[in-house]
Specification:
The protein is an alpha/beta fold. The C terminus is likely disordered.
Length: 581
């Protein structure tokens, strides 16, 4: 069928629905509702769709559109659940299971007839993580079922007036309801509030007399202090005491009253470093770029001892001949500091006696490449862009030059731009079936780097590499496997990915043919180096990127700024071409 996606943003769920409908042979186009009702109407006139699907909407469809076309709306929440903060309430209230509904648009909000629905477990994770994983799995399955039912033509959707559907209206979860009472709320309550707002809108608070919003939360098992007290930093995160424990907060967003010229979320300690020191903490000198000077940096070893419950964004563990270097950065963005720390950890992993090294393996986003928020907040965005790119290239090159063991990139979630190229530097790419890949840099107007001109064509061929980077379309995990981007699909729920990767890696390590594979790999790398050195790929790519970074009029700078500030950018039609089978 001809299907038009209407979405307020072409976010992770919209991209996955687009990719999986395309995999099934439908001709899919998309329009951003954020560009207004007229843009939606224009897309409908042009595409003349047989069906309209709205995977993510923050505003109502134009009435003339839903009256003249069947429009299926995807809503986080079980049938009968209504209101704008469904998943936020589920996490805040500690629901163990939640749902998703695909219903037909009509005049009453969230009240249309149900074409499909599904349920999913709610793990102790942030809203963004749950949305991209458990909810995305359930929502995509429900959309595919609803589209199949529509195609077959005999299904009659279930009215929400059905006695078996319990209608519950939940008002928007307002910011004052999200606010933490540090002297009263226990650690679990604090974590639920933080997790329910981790991606947006954040939890309102005050630090050092400035308004801030807290993003993300993880438990701490040892550090303690007075409720609300800031205790330490670690790798850019802040540790803050609760009445019965402590939590780690990875990111802050300065409020309007903070005086910060960069009012978007980024590593918490770097935001706090620009605030004045609290009374009694010292002479009041400003902090460093990475952390406020008055808080201690509490490190933990890469290999955490058994029984620890604390936060670390990079960890190493070993099981026999297999090493696991896992990492998890908010939203997958990797700043200069992130890249350098991960490179140091990678070099540490190479000192261990293993025959297989797994890079990644955690649930949720693998990597999206450069960190636009940190770049935008810099006093020299062009210079920080360059530093970030060099650090990312150093990391990717280290993986490419590893010849004494098999390296596996294990993607539990989405990857984009330089994050895809980081994965492709490995010998094998394993991908959870729910992941979406964006192997291009088009959204920020960049040519790209991280040795993509070497890694991408050698996997998919020059013609496909040119199409992937030029079209800028998302690719499902299944499509990525078919074209050679991915070597192995891992068809498990998000919570089982790490254990399944560990099992599969043990099989690779036990393969008697492994020594021969490593020898073959070493020979191939040497041959490739003789044909064209990696240094030449790097030099050519970086020259193109440096020209963009140093040009104040390059689209990259405006696109980056709009992205981090949540402003509309780009055309109303986000796709360069229609999806096909």
């Amino acid at each position: 069928m001809d299907i038009l996606l209407v979405a307020s943003a072409f976010n992770s769920l919209s991209q996955r629905v687009y990719a999986e409908l395309s995999d099934q042979g439908h001709r899919v186009d998309a329009v951003l509702a954020s560009h207004g009702a007229d843009a939606v109407r224009a897309a409908v006139r042009e595409v003349r769709p047989e069906l309209i699907v709205a995977p993510m909407l923050t505003s109502a469809l134009p009435e003339d559109v839903w009256r003249e076309h069947t429009c299926l709306i995807v809503r986080p929440g079980p049938p009968g659940d209504r209101g704008p903060s469904s998943l936020d309430w589920a996490i805040t209230e500690g629901a163990s299971e939640w749902g998703v509904t695909v219903f037909q648009a009509e005049a009453a909000l969230d009240a249309g007839d149900v074409w499909a629905d599904g349920s999913f477990p709610v793990p102790p994770a942030g809203k963004g993580d749950v949305y991209r994983n458990e909810l995305s799995d359930a929502a995509t399955a429900a959309v595919l079922l609803a589209v199949r039912r529509f195609t077959e033509g005999s299904f009659k959707p279930r009215p929400q007036s059905d006695p078996g559907i319990r209608v519950v209206w939940r008002d928007a979860l307002h910011q004052e309801e999200r606010r933490i009472d540090w002297g009263h709320d226990d650690t679990q309550t604090v974590l639920r509030k933080l997790r329910a707002a981790d991606s947006r809108p954040g939890v309102p608070d005050e630090l050092c007399g400035r308004e801030v919003f807290l993003h993300g939360g993880h438990p701490e098992d040892r550090l303690r202090g007075e409720p609300g007290e800031l205790l330490a930093t670690r790798s850019g995160a802040l540790c803050r005491a609760t009445r019965d424990g402590a939590v780690w907060i990875p990111e802050l967003r300065p409020g309007k009253g903070s005086g910060d010229p960069a009012p978007f979320r980024r590593p918490a300690a770097s935001v706090l470093s620009g605030f004045p020191a609290p009374p009694g903490s010292g002479p009041g000198m400003p902090g460093s770029n990475d952390r406020p000077y008055w808080l201690p940096e509490i490190a933990v070893p890469l290999e955490l001892p058994p029984g620890r419950t604390t936060w670390a964004d990079i960890r190493y563990r070993q099981r026999g001949a297999v090493g696991f270097l896992s990492f998890s950065f908010p939203g997958g963005a990797m700043s200069t500091t992130h890249c350098r720390r991960l490179l140091a950890a990678y070099r540490y992993a190479l000192t261990r006696r293993t025959s297989v090294l797994v890079l990644g393996g955690a649930r949720d986003v693998f990597s999206t490449g450069l960190h636009p928020h940190v770049i935008e907040a810099s006093s020299d965005p062009a210079g920080e862009s360059w530093s970030n790119l060099l650090a990312m290239n150093d990391l990717v090159e280290a993986v490419l030059r590893t010849t004494d063991r098999v390296v596996v990139a294990a993607l539990g979630g989405n990857a984009a731009a330089g994050g895809v190229m980081l994965a492709l530097a490995a010998d094998e790419v394993w991908c959870r079936t729910g992941a979406v890949l964006n192997p291009h840099y088009r959204n920020l107007g960049l040519y790209g780097s991280e040795f993509w001109t070497y890694s991408l064509p050698r996997r998919v061929g020059a013609e496909t590499a040119e199409r992937l980077t030029g079209d800028g379309l998302p690719v499902s995990a299944a499509a990525a496997e078919r074209m050679g981007l991915v070597d192995r699909l891992v068809p498990v729920p998000p919570g089982e990915f790490t254990a399944e990767v560990e099992r599969l890696a043990a099989e690779v390590a036990a393969d008697p043919d492994l020594p021969r594979r490593i020898t073959t790999k070493t020979t191939a790398r040497h041959a490739d180096e003789l044909q064209q050195p990696l240094a030449e790929y790097r030099r050519t790519e970086l020259a193109r990127m440096r020209d963009v970074f140093s040009d104040p009029q390059a689209p990259y700078h405006a696109l980056r700024s709009a992205l981090v500030r949540g402003l509309p950018s780009g055309p109303a039609r986000p796709l360069a071409a229609r999806g096909t089978a």
